[in-house]
Write a structure and sequence with these properties.
The two termini are 25 Å apart. By secondary structure, this protein is of the alpha+beta class. The protein is globular, with a radius of gyration of 13 Å.
Length: 103
């Protein structure tokens, strides 16, 4: 099964994510299941223009994991490289408003 490791981690409630940083830009993406929803957080950094290294935060919720994974991949993140975020989580799940993006 494609992404079996990542799916098993998500379904067990673990937050997994991906971070990528260059000299002038950076980006984070994380996903976590909370209740019956899959929470996705994306942050894009432009270190030349963002004050104090704060990036643009985006929050999404999905009811279906396959839709959540498709969205993550559509944004250019390599879902197969997502790993557990031990001790340094990408996002706090309490920041979400829980409105689903599924259509």
């Amino acid at each position: 099964m494609k992404y079996e490791k990542q799916i098993n981690l998500i379904e067990s409630g673990k937050q997994i994510g991906y971070r990528e940083y260059g000299d002038k830009t950076g980006r984070d993406c994380g996903i976590q299941k909370k209740g019956f929803l899959y929470l996705i957080y994306i942050c894009i950094y432009d270190f030349e223009y963002d004050a104090m290294d704060s990036g643009k935060d985006e929050y999404y919720t999905y009811e279906r994991l396959d839709n959540a994974i498709a969205f993550i991949e559509s944004r250019g993140f390599p879902f197969g490289e997502f790993i557990p975020q031990k001790g340094n989580k990408i996002f706090n799940p309490d920041w979400f408003d829980y409105i689903s993006c599924d259509k």
